[in-house]
Amino acid sequence: MSRPDKLTWEQAVLWLREQPGRDDLVRAAYYDDPLLDAAQRYASGPEWQAVHGFLPRHRPATALDVGAGRGIVSYALARDGFTVTALEPDESAIVGANAIRALARDSGVQIDVVQKFSEQLPFADGSFDVLIARAVLHHTSDLAGACREFFRVLRPGGRLLALREHVISRPDDLERFFEVHPLHHLYGGENAFELPTYTRALCAAGFDIAEVLGPLESAINLAPQTPRGFVEESARRVFGSAALPVRATGALLGNRLTWPLTRRLIAPFDHRPGRHYSFVAVRAG
Hints:
Blueprint: H1 9-18, H2 23-28, H3 35-43, H4 46-52, E1 62-66, H5 72-79, E2 83-87, H6 97-107, E3 111-114, E4 128-134, H7 143-153, E5 154-168, H8 173-180, H9 184-187, E6 193-194, H10 195-205, E7 208-213, H11 219-222, H12 227-239, H13 243-253, H14 259-266, E8 275-282
Parallel strand pairs: 1-2, 1-4, 2-3, 4-5, 5-6
Antiparallel strand pairs: 5-8, 7-8
């Protein structure tokens, strides 16, 4: 497809699919088809297994997937026994509400799809037990307002999981983040905030923050990369294309036993613009 000055999100994803050598990125972002295969891969992958540990144990339970995109989180929630509402304003059959409807039909799971924005949720107070917002808060036009709405629609004791939010260390890093993001130059829809901006918005809305997961602390933020893959990628900056020392460094510092120490040593120096953080917050009741 030709590339106009500004693309829609759907057009940007379709453009990315056409680029040579970007298949791994497309799969990592779950933009590949068939959508059901991508959703099943997400639901059985390390990110969702880590998310699952933060979900409420009681069933039946209601869940709201905000900014649901293609519906991979909605599918995983429904498969795990939640009554699911997917909030997605884009009607796209590739990356939006119509894609979610097709996924629900093809998989046989029940997902109620609502086409609205997160800053003004069309639900009564206390409607949901859990709200998941995967890579949503950094896209909001009103971060504080979105957090207030999330708080409002959760029941007392309800849980917010704000996952894979882009973080910068200082304002000047925002442009650097835009430069490395694979799609921002196409549609201009990305953003990132400093870590205190997120936590202040959540606390001001009334949430108690139970967990702040750093970029290397959980598969939620690290996936689809593995600890060994992350170490090897870092080692390439030192050793270049020398495969043996790269693999040796990954094996030494990225294995199950050494990784907890490795990540603690790396974390204070990790200032990558747009790195992922995730937040687990509770509406006290």
